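quick one if you have a minute, typing this from the bus. below you get a single protein, a line of residues and a line of whole numbers that encode the local backbone shape. could you go over both lines and see whether the tokens make sense for that sequence. anything you notice is useful, everything is just below.
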Amino acid sequence: MKKWLLLIALLASNQAFAHPNHDTSLYSALLHPVTGWDHLLTMLIIGVMAYQFPMKKGVIFPAIFVSSFGLSAVFSTGLGIGEEQLHLLNQMILVALIVLPLGHVLLTKLSFSLVTLFIGMIGVFHGVTHGVELDASSFPVLAGLILSTIALHTIGFFVAMYASKKHEWALRAFTICSGVFAATLFVQSI
């Protein structure tokens, strides 16, 4: 147990929030979602959650996230948001990552529409944050962010597909540990 706490503390000791100072290249935009733990874990969990439904229904989660993420990123580009508001947006992303594992654990007991709405809201928070940090109106930046996001959702989906039969407990442990990690980062950000 002490080793896990030490690992969480070491991971949380880095900057809790997004990663400013990226350039506007496709390469930088592709890396942006995978270099922040909050973005990476959120997208993987949504992919895992998508697998728990038949394909026609499950694909809605990533589609809603990518749509709300992309649109809000474009519309928020160039907004004059100060450091306090950006900090609040990043905290909302962490709160969403704290709640998202609960949604995964209770997925079959929650309304599909409610979960879809929640995932759309998470997409908006991520999109606005990325739009403010990056020039998401630039096609290479937007394309990189969306491609990387889709790739992470797909990875989460296929990991769930291969692990769900024998290791469903590992998927739940992953999402719960992600929520604990996010809670640690959130407390650190206050």
